[in-house]
Each structure stands twice: as structure tokens, then as C-alpha cells.
Inverse folding.
């Protein structure tokens, strides 16, 4: 059983994907309505496909360029194999495929939800959540399937599926990082491009349709209305999916890297029932079990009564969510106790090697689950309808747009307080429990429910679209009433889902950051060195500038949309009377092209900066380890500032949105009930306009920025380091007494000098345990040194 | 000559202060006008005094509380003497006194400027800039006078005015840090409290006056109008003055600390013509010469033609500014070459001791001057009238307040790009030239022109007030025209002055941060340790939350003001007809009380967080050096995030302000000239409302936050470290050969164990230069150890 454990995650992923296929065919078998409904749904479907196809074209070019770069890297760096290119391509393809599944099912499910809502709310929930489930399991299943398959392949390819030493395993994991990088690059396109798309279409449609032409939202006469609905899918479904796909893969990868580091700290090899790789297999196993748990969680989401309201629907989702979190906690306990040595040794910086029991690793996973649950509550508090911060923004709307804006900004800013304290506490606690391996496993545990989380997230835009279709096809009001209940719940889950995505990005980046240090072999990142401090500043600046670029991109793309809609209104006769059909496809094309064009600059910023920091000083002959430390400072700056700006922008945006929505039911301002159309409401609408790019474009983009930055760092780490690839291969060889002093000669380290492509064996002289001197005794290619050490070991055994 | 050099800065400061007194009496002798003009000016003067008095009451309590805390610290920590309390009190008193001089002269000069503007523009400039000069030289003179006097006193008190060792000098400088802390605490009150005051009065006056009652700005019927004018002085004069006073003192102090560190790196003592303290005297000397240069600079500011326009006035200010920068560069060259050893040794982290020529220190000072000049240009580009970013915001105003806000936010965010690259480049370059001593001297050189900078800064609000008085006392239009020219120039200098203040705060914090590390004796701040990383996150969050609190404070205080103005309009008959006088003093009182009350929470956040981080883990028995590293991580987080948010908020606010002002002369939007009162203008007004607290309250507060955080760190550093206080007092003592191995015994270190209040002498065994072992050979009180070492040295000399 234990020896087969390496295949367990694949099996679980396969099971999850099979369940997904069953669910998918069930959803597709549902009645898709007819006439106008079907027509609109088809437009949205086709618009989404148009975006995907355009995105894939651009992606192909991008993947080819990056593949060439990676191939060069793999030739230059001995610890990076050319297979990283294959892993990269597959990572990109898997992520894109998962996004494709999600988009397709979401755009097929919306109309079926509308149709189901004609007869029953429970059925409408079942259909819409079914669509979400397909998305969630598709992403989680493909992520685990891809990552673990490549691990097994590389483990076989580089190590013959048997433990040799941590250096070889580092090569396996370094090559595996390509898969993660591929996935995150897709996320850049899907999340940033998608974010620009969705808001450009939204703002464009509103500015001309609602404001200039005076027609309601989702009116079929508006040429941009289909683009607007496509945008919901592009941004919230495909974007969120790719984001979490990337987090999921990167988290598990980072935990594996740190698991390898634990083995190194324990002397370079452990004996367990899992072929000596228990600490490396554990994160994959948690991910695998998480998929089955997600399946169970999604099964629990159902309501019975046709008269149910928001609380019942929310309750059903919560039940599924909480049960899955509890099940993850239980399985973490079982897996940790089973798979890890009872006591491990871990190196704590500045404190040396410490004994860590496996129970402490379990506690670290609990920290992760706690963060996942808490961050949602915090987000909910700062952005939820009827909560204090929202009521305050509503009050401030009465004195105009200016005070509404200030209140919204302040809310977003203050929301960083509990969120950052939570993250800081989590870093501290999980590290105190089990070092950076603990931090990475906390992230892994939190991400284990990704399938379930994404099902809940994707359900929102599906319900939103279903409502839009009901409106556009002029259904009975009861249909819209039912979809509105789902939509309202979907809005809440969208906000908490964003919180989860930030938390996952933050923890993932931390885990990657830790993995980066172990890969480069630097002994820490000392910000008292001025170049490192300078890079901390530069890193801190990048998320701010990135956000501004993303916001400006929305503005530019929206302006193009506005002009196109104006042109159609002007040039197509009968469009306003509903006798002529608008050219929906032209608007979709504009959004598509603009979003992909406008994401170039922020994308370049994300990818270019770490490369510049790594390679420009290299050209000037700077020491590689010094560069590695600088790049580490940059990564830390991006992460700290990026997490702050993500929380700030998401929560400010969410707060403005719900402050505006509060006016729909009416709010009490200075003792007077105030509704839509009031001056205060107009002020709140202004706030929402500012908040839209915050919460849907620049805010969520931060997740990608910080993860991708850390991943790029991880991939180029071996170029900078190489000294990391040290491995204790032998213990004390002989003892010598001269001049009354007892010296012990220990061949205790093989370090790989990446710059000169040679391996070095160091001899350490100790005097009663104190290191007196170190001396390099053997140098050569890695193969030569390995052979020499093996010979030495064989001689000693005699 | 050389031996008297220690008194040079005091002499220069005294000269500067004498010149200030002459200038002051000249300004006060000018015609102060009569009737209405004089009456209004008196109201403003009294309102300012009312604020100052209220502030001083609160300050006294605060100073007493902090003094008690400091007294406790000085009892617990052997390297901190109780004299730090005296230094602290004097630092607070000097800063408050400088602010007092500035406020008084500013409020006296405004009416005299109006009066002078009746006849001549050159005279109006002479009077208004004369007031600014008094402010500038008062601040610079008192800062240098106070700091250097205390240094001379402590140097005599602790070291008998003769060099002993770096440990003793550390005690001198540690005690001197009290002066800097006192000054910065006043800055907290003046800048944050003043920032809240000025915007609460401004927003309150506008909301009821302009919007509700429809009367123009600065109308004497508005009860809040005096408070508004007082606010300009409180925020822009006293706040800016205290800010720069604090930066000035802290920068010089940090440079002195790092100068002491240079001496330590050079073996614990140097031989030069300045009693062996050349590197410590240098920053004081640069500051002293800077005062005389500032006097020269201010003398150059004059125009001749009565028909001069903005460019001529700006040109006169620029001439003075550039000449003073050039003179500072020349004197830095002379002083550096004269006062520093030709070659120094400096310890670069990770690179060991390096030989640094004094020319390289000079290059570092040039870096500082370059940053000071560049940051003003960058600020000018992003916030200047007619520049591209402003024109873009103007264009975006045509589609409503929402797009105007987004454009303003994006401008502020993007402006961090060149600014941060400039700072990062400056850190890198000045460190590469001369280590952290170079960074601190770069800051010192930049700050040398503080007198001149502040004269230019203070001139703005004086001109603004002069215009207000002309308006309120209904002068001839030509008077307002002339003051408007001065005001327009003042607006530009206000923006660039803010840039200078940020740059000074940033460089000061970096220098303090470096000094902190040397005080604690930690070997760097490694953000790969999870607790340090967690604190980096927490530190990054604090500026964001601080800004939000400051913004909310403005909102709350403004609301109180609105209610008071409404009450007066309602209850005082004849107020609108101008027959009854409004109760100006009530509005002043409200602004005063509200601002001081509302600054409590952000102030507590600033002071409380570092104390919590230092002392809570201490209670739980955490290692002191680990705590010191955590606190360092926190300081870095606050600095990086604080600088970012300062630039973002100041520039966004400045950009919105000038986008609004663009409409006064008319702007071309979509081919149409658009003026005040248009829809686009209304959108721009909304942007300005959001920008007001950004640029005048939360933005400038960041300067204080980051400096005060680093200063608090510096003051508690010896509690955490103590190991820093090491000093090489003797060289090799004897050589011993045993078993054919040559051992050298070297008593090379006295380290002070702060926790146990004892000194330790360490014996180092070396084998042909390699350190083989260290051993503690002598422990006791500092006095005992000193005596023993002296005896040992005496024996060796025989």
C-alpha cells in the first residue's frame, strides 16, 4: 500500500475528473430552453469562444518565446534539464484546458439555469452549482493530475524511481517548476487580460447604454451587452480558475521542494515506507485527498423548498464548504501521522537544527485551514451588505461623490489591518510549528478544498448570467426573482472567493519564496545590504505601478467600446426600435483585442523586472549569490506590497459595489429612507465606477503578479545559486590524532559550483566537535565526484 | 583651527539665527495695513496662537509621559544615560519653539505682504519671502544649535572631550538620540494634527460656505474662514517646519552614528586633526555650513520689475535654490577632503572590510544633492499645471467624477515608478561609494539646504494668506492680481517642497535604519526568518492603516465644523447680510480640539507598534537579538510602504488639485474650451475633494510615521542589542607556540552584555591569522573591565 502511495494523487485526480465528466454530461442534458433564450445564450457562448481563441493564438506565441528562453536556461544551468520546457508547455496547456472546460460549461449552464428557474429554485441551484462543480473539479483534477504525473515521470527519469540524494531530487523538482510556471503564465493572460476584458465591456456598455441611450442593463438592443455577459465568464470564471489552478500547483510544488529540504536537514536520506520520500509525497497526497473531499462537499449543496430565500441557499453552500474543511483537517491528521517520520530535523535560521514532531506539521496545516476560513469572514465584514463599513459609506454618500470615495478608500485601507495581522500570524505560527515546510503545508491544506471553493465561486457568475438571460429574453418575473436569489448569494461568494484567492496567492508566494532561498543556497536575505534594500523598494513599487497600468488599460479599452457602440447606434437603422440586430460580434472583438493588447505592458513589467535584476548585474560581473539575495529582496517587496494592494483594492471595490447596491432596497440616511435615483445614490454609483477596475481588474491581478514573480525567481534560482545543491552524502570517515589534538576528517558536503560547472567535495576538520577548518579535497564534474564518493564509501564499508 | 572645528556648527547656527532676527525685525517693521485688513490678520494670528497653545498643553502631557518612559529605559539599559530625558525635552522644546517662530512670522507677514502688494510686486515678494526666510533659518538654526550643543556637552560629560573608544562615543550618540526623538514627536503633533486641522477647516468652510450658502471662498461672512486661513499656517508652515526640523536633526545624528562605526571599522581609533572624531564631526559641519549657504541663497531671491509674472518670480526662487545647491556641493568637497582620513576602512556586509577613499564619500554627497533636485522635477512633472498627466486627468473629467478619480489615482500610483527608482538608485550608489556612512552623508548633503528649502516652502502659504486677506478686506483688484502671481508660484513650490520632504524622510529613515543595525549589533536583518518576514508584512500594513485613520479623522472633524457653521448661520441674525460678526473663535476651537483628538489613534499606532514588537516577545523570553531583527523587519516594512504611500498620496492629491485649477483658465476637451462651472469642472472638484486629505493630511503624515518609527527603533536598540557596543581596545598581546602551532592571544574585544549589565573581554586564539577559538577571559562591570584593560595595556607598554 505505502509503496503505491505515489500513484494515489493521480488516482484521486482521475476519480475527480470522472465525476466531473458525469456532472458535465448531466448538466448538458438539461433543457436549454428555446427561441430568444437559446439565441442569447449562443451569442454568449460564441463570444466566449472568440475570446478564448484569440487568447490561445497570443498564448501560443508567448509559450514558444518562453520555451526558447527556458531551453537556453536549461543548457546553461547544469541543474536544469531541457525537460523543463516540456513541463512548461504542459503546464500552460493543462491550465488553458481547465479554463476552456470552465468557460464552456459556464456559458452552457447559464441558460439551463434560467430554464430550470422557470419551474423550481432547487433545480436552478442544482443546475447552476452543477456547472460550478464541473469547473471546480476540472481545475483541481487537471492540476493534480498534471503535476503528479510529471513528478512520477521525472522521478523515474532522473532517479530511476529510487531515492539517491537530495541533489538529484532538486533536479526533479527544478524541472517540475516548469509545469507551475506554465500554469501561472496562463493565469497572467486569463486573470489580467480577463480582468481588463470584463470591465472594458461593462463600463463601455453602461456608459453608452444606461447613461447616453437610457436603456436598461442587459438590454438586447445594446451592442455591448453580449460582450458584457461574456466578460463575466472571462473574468470571473476563466480568470479565477486559472488563478487558483496556478496557486494550487505552485503551493504543492513549493511544499515538495521544502520537503526535500527537510530530508536534507535530516542527513540527506530518511527511511520510511514511502521509498524515503514521505515529506515530498505528503503535499501531493493532501491535494489528492482534497479532490475527493471536494466531490463530497459539492454533493452536500442542495435545497429542497421552492420557497427558499438567500439564507437557505447560502446555508447549503456553507454546509458543503465547512464539511469539506473539516474533512481536510481530519485527512491532514491521518496523512501527516502516517507519511512523515515521527520526529524530523529542520534547520531554523539562526537557531540551528531542531527536532520537530510530525504532530507539529499537522498543527501547521490547521493554521492554513484557519486562515482560509478567517480571511473569508474578514472580507465578508468589510464588503458585506448591511455591515458597518458599508453603512458608513452609504452615509458618506449623502455629502457627495467625494466623501463616498474617501470612505471607500479608507474602508479598503483599514481592511488590511486584520488581514495582514492574520497573514503575519499565520506565517509566524506555521513557521514556529514546522519551519518553512510548515508554511508550505499550511498553504497546501488551505488549497486542498480548491475544487469546492471554485465550485462555489463559479456558481456566482453562472447565476448572474442566468439572470441576464432571463432579462434579455423577457421571462416571467418569477424566473428573475429566483435567479436573483442565486445571484445575491453569488455576489457574497464572489467577495469571499476573492479573499480566498488572495490568501492562497499570499501563502503560495511565501512558500515559493522559501523554496527560492533553498534553491539558491544563499544563507538568507539580508535587507541591511543596501542593494537588497534597494530591490525591496523596487519590488514594493511594482504592484502599485502594475495596478495603475491595469486601471488605465480598462479606461482605454472602455473608450474604444464606447465609440463602437455609439457608431452602431448611429449607423444601424432600427437598432433602437429593436427591429435591427446589433453587431454583437464587433463589440466582442473589440473587448478581446483591447484586453489582450493592454495586458502586454503590465505583463512585461511582471516578467521583465526579475529578469533584469538577475541578468543585468550578471553582465557587470556581480557575484551570483549577491544577485540571488537582491532578487530575493525584490520578491519580498513585490509580495508584501502586492498582498497589501490586493486586499486594499479588492475590499474597497467590493465595499463601493455593495454600498451602491444598498440603495436598491433603500437605506436610512439622516433619518430619511433614500432609494435609487437619489443624489446619494448617484454618488454611490460614482464610487462603484472607481471600484469596478479595483475589484475586478487590478486587485485580482495582484495575485498573479506576486506568484509569477516568485515562480520566475524559483526557475532562475539555480542559475544564481548552485551552491544550494549540497548534500551530505557520507559521515565521519576517519579520525586522526596529531600533536595531542584529535582531528576528525569528514567528507560531508558535495557542493555544485554552477558557474564553473564542477562539483566540489569539502573536507572538514573538527576538534572535539568544533569546526577548525574546511578544505576542498576533490573537484571535477558531477559524475566524477559522485563516482569518487561512491568509491570512498565502498572502501569505508570494508 | 582644526581643534576648534567642533564649535564651528554652533557658530554658523548662531550667525544664521542672528540673520533671522534681523530679518524678523525688518519684516515686523513693514507696514501692516489698517482697518479691515489688520483686523482679519489679527484673527488669523490669534487663531494660530490658540492652536499652538492647545497643542502645547497636550504636548506637555505627552512629553512628561515619554520622559518617564525614557527615564525607565535609561535605568534599565547601561548604555543609555538618564541625560537622554533632558535631551528629549530640549529636542521637543527647540522644535516647538522653531514652529512658534515660524507660525508667528507667517501670520504677521501675510498682511504686510498684502500691504506691500498695494504698491509693488518686488516689495511683496521681498516681504513674503522675508517671512519665509525667518521660518527657514529659524528651523535650521535651532536644529543645528540644539544638536551640536548637546553633542559638545555629552562629549565633555561622557568622554571628557577626548577620544577614548567607540563604545563611549556610542553612549554619547545614544543619549543624543533623545534630542532627535523629542523633535520628531513634535513633528507628529504638528504634521499630523496640523494636517487634520487644515483640511477639517477647509472642507468644513467649503461644504457649508461655497456649496450650501453659495458665498465665495475667503468670504468674511463664513465663520470657518479664519479657521481655514489658520489651517494654512498650521499645516503648511508649522507642520512642514517641524517635519524638516525632525529630518534635519535625525539625518545628522544618523550620520554621526555611522561615522562612529567607521572609526570602529578602522580599528577603534583614528588620528586626525579633529581629535580623532573627524568622521563624526563631518555631518555637523556640513549642516553648519549649510546654514550660511542658505543665508546667501535667500539673499539672491529678488525681482526688480513691477510687471514681472510667474516665470520671473519662479526664476528668482530657482536662482537662490540652485546656487545654494551648488555651494553645498563645493563645501562638501572641501569639508570631506579636509576632515576625513584620505583612506578609510568600512565594513560592507558580505564583502568584509574595504578601503574607501574620502573622494568616494564626496561622491555620495553628490548623490544626495542629485536626489533632492530630481525628486522636485519628478513631483513637478506629475502634478504641474499644463503637464501631460494633468491634461489627461482633465480629459478624463469629461466623462464624470468616476473617471476623473481613476485617472488621479493612476497618476499618483504611476508616479511611484521614477521616484522609487530614484531612491533605489540613490541607496545603491551612495552605499557603493561609501557604505551606509555614504547613505547618511547623502541625506546630510541634501538636507544642508533645509534653511533655503523651507524659506521657499513657507513663502507659499504666506502668499496664499496675503491673497485671502486682500479678498476679505476687498482691496483693489491689482492687489489680488499681484498676490495671485505669488500664490501661483507658491503652489508649485508647495508641491516640489513636498517632494523634498518625502525624499528627506526616506533618506533619513534609511540612515536611521542603518544606525539601528549598528546599535543593536545584529549581523543584518534576514527576511528569510519567518518572524522577521511576518513583521515586514505588519510594517507594510501600518502606513496604509495610518493613512486611512488620518483620512477618516478629517471627515469626522469636518463634519463637526459643518454643524458649527450651520448653527451660526441659523442662530446669529444678520450674519449673511454682513451686519453681524460670525464667531470665528468657536470654529478655530473646534478645528483645534478635533485635530488634536483625532490624531491620538494614528499617533498611538505609530508609537505603540514598535514598542509592542520589542517588549511583548521579551516578556515571553524571546532572544533579544531575534527581537531586534524582527523590529528591523518592521522598520523596513514601514519605510518601504510609507515612502510608496507618501508619493502616491501626495502626487495624486497634487494632480487632482491642479486638474481642477486648470479649469480656471479654461481647458480644451474634445475640441471645446471648457471652463469653471462645466460638468467636467464639477467632476474635477470631486477629485480635488478626495485629493485634499491625500496631499495635506495622510500623505505628508507618512514622513513622520517612517522617521518616528525608525527613531523609536534606534532609541530602544540598546535594550535589544548591547552586543553592538564592542570596541577593539588593544591589539595582539603575546604569542605562544605549543606543539609546533603558533597561537596568538589577542584581547580584542570588550562587549557589553546589556541583559546582565556586565562587560566581557574576549580572548581570541589565532593560528597564523585564522581564528581558532574565542574565549571570555574577564567579566565584570564596565568600570572594572575598563580598569583591567588599562592595566593590561600599561603592563604591555613596559
Amino acid at each position: 500500500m505505502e509503496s503505491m502511495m505515489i500513484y494515489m494523487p493521480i488516482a484521486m485526480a482521475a476519480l475527480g475528473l470522472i465525476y466531473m465528466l458525469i456532472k458535465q454530461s448531466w448538466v448538458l442534458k438539461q433543457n436549454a430552453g428555446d427561441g430568444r433564450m437559446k439565441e442569447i445564450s449562443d451569442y454568449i457562448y460564441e463570444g466566449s469562444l472568440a475570446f478564448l481563441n484569440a487568447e490561445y493564438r497570443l498564448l501560443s506565441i508567448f509559450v514558444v518565446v518562453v520555451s526558447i528562453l527556458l531551453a537556453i536556461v536549461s543548457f546553461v544551468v547544469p541543474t536544469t534539464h531541457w525537460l523543463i520546457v516540456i513541463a512548461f508547455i504542459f503546464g500552460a496547456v493543462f491550465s488553458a484546458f481547465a479554463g476552456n472546460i470552465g468557460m464552456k460549461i459556464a456559458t452552457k449552464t447559464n441558460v439551463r439555469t434560467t430554464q430550470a428557474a422557470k419551474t423550481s429554485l432547487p433545480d436552478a441551484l442544482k443546475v447552476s452549482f452543477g456547472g460550478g462543480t464541473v469547473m471546480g473539479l476540472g481545475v483541481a483534477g487537471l492540476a493534480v493530475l498534471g503535476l503528479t504525473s510529471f513528478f512520477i515521470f521525472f522521478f523515474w527519469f532522473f532517479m530511476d524511481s529510487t531515492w539517491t540524494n537530495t541533489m538529484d531530487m532538486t533536479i526533479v523538482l527544478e524541472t517540475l517548476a516548469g509545469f507551475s510556471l506554465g500554469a501561472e503564465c496562463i493565469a497572467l493572460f486569463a486573470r489580467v487580460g480577463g480582468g481588463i476584458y470584463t470591465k472594458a465591456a461593462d463600463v463601455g456598455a453602461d456608459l453608452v447604454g444606461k447613461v447616453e441611450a437610457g436603456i436598461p442593463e442587459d438590454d438586447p438592443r445594446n451592442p455591448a451587452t453580449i460582450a458584457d455577459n461574456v466578460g463575466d465568464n472571462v473574468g470571473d470564471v476563466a480568470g479565477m480558475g486559472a488563478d487558483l489552478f496556478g496557486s494550487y500547483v505552485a503551493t504543492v510544488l513549493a511544499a515538495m521542494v521544502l520537503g526535500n529540504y527537510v530530508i536534507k536537514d535530516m542527513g540527506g536520506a530518511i527511511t520510511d515506507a514511502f521509498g524515503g520520500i514521505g515529506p515530498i509525497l505528503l503535499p501531493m497526497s493532501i491535494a489528492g485527498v482534497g479532490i475527493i473531499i471536494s466531490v463530497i462537499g459539492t454533493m452536500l449543496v442542495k435545497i429542497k423548498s421552492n420557497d427558499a430565500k438567500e439564507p437557505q441557499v447560502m446555508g447549503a453552500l456553507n454546509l458543503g464548504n465547512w464539511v469539506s474543511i473539516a474533512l481536510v483537517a481530519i485527512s491532514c491528521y491521518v496523512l501527516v501521522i502516517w507519511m512523515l517520520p515521527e520526529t524530523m530535523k529542520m534547520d531554523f535560521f539562526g537557531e540551528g537544527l531542531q527536532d520537530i514532531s510530525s504532530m507539529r506539521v499537522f498543527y501547521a496545516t490547521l493554521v492554513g485551514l484557519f486562515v482560509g476560513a478567517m480571511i473569508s469572514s474578514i472580507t465578508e465584514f468589510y464588503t458585506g451588505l448591511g455591515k458597518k463599513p458599508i453603512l458608513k459609506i452609504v452615509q458618506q454618500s449623502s455629502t457627495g461623490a467625494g466623501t463616498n470615495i474617501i470612505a471607500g478608500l479608507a474602508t479598503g485601507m483599514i481592511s488590511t489591518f486584520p488581514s495582514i495581522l492574520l497573514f503575519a500570524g499565520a506565517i509566524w505560527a506555521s513557521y514556529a510549528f514546522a519551519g518553512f515546510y510548515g508554511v508550505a503545508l499550511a498553504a497546501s491544506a488551505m488549497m486542498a478544498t480548491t475544487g469546492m471553493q471554485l465550485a462555489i465561486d463559479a456558481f456566482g457568475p453562472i447565476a448572474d448570467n442566468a439572470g441576464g438571460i432571463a432579462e434579455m429574453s423577457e421571462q416571467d418575473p418569477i424566473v428573475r426573482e429566483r435567479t436573483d436569489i442565486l445571484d445575491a448569494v453569488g455576489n457574497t461568494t464572489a467577495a469571499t472567493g476573492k479573499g480566498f484567492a488572495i490568501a492562497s496567492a499570499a501563502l503560495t508566494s511565501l512558500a515559493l519564496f522559501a523554496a527560492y532561498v533553498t534553491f539558491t543556497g544563499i544563507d538568507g536575505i539580508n535587507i541591511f545590504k543596501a542593494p537588497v534594500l534597494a530591490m525591496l523598494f523596487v519590488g514594493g513599487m511594482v504592484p502599485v505601478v502594475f495596478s495603475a497600468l491595469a486601471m488605465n488599460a480598462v479606461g482605454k479599452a472602455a473608450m474604444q467600446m464606447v465609440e463602437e457602440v455609439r457608431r452602431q447606434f448611429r449607423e444601424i437603422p432600427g437598432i433602437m426600435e429593436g427591429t435591427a440586430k446589433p453587431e454583437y460580434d464587433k463589440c466582442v472583438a473589440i473587448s478581446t483585442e483591447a484586453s489582450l493588447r493592454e495586458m502586454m505592458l503590465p505583463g512585461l513589467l511582471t516578467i521583465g523586472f526579475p529578469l533584469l535584476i538577475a541578468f543585468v548585474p550578471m553582465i557587470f560581473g556581480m557575484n551570483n549569490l549577491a544577485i540571488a539575495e537582491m532578487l530575493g529582496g525584490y520578491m519580498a517587496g513585490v509580495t508584501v506590497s502586492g498582498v497589501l494592494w490586493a486586499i486594499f483594492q479588492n475590499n474597497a471595490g467590493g465595499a463601493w459595489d455593495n454600498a451602491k447596491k444598498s440603495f436598491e432596497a433603500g437605506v436610512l440616511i439622516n433619518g430619511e429612507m433614500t432609494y435609487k435615483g437619489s443624489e446619494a445614490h448617484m454618488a454611490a454609483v460614482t464610487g462603484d465606477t472607481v471600484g469596478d477596475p479595483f475589484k475586478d481588474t487590478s486587485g485580482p491581478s495582484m495575485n498573479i503578479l506576486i506568484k509569477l514573480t516568485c515562480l520566475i525567481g524559483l526557475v532562475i534560482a539555480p542559475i544564481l545559486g548552485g551552491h544550494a545543491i549540497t548534500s551530505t552524502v557520507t559521515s565521519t570517515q576517519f579520525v586522526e590524532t596529531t600533536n595531542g589534538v584529535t582531528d576528525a576528517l569528514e567528507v560531508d558536503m558535495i557542493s555544485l559550483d554552477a558557474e564553473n560547472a564542477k562539483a566540489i567535495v569539502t573536507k572538514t576538520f573538527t576538534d572535539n566537535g568544533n569546526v577548525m577548518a574546511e578544505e576542498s579535497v576533490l573537484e571535477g564534474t558531477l559524475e566524477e565526484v559522485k563516482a569518487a564518493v561512491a568509491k570512498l564509501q565502498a572502501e569505508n564499508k570494508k
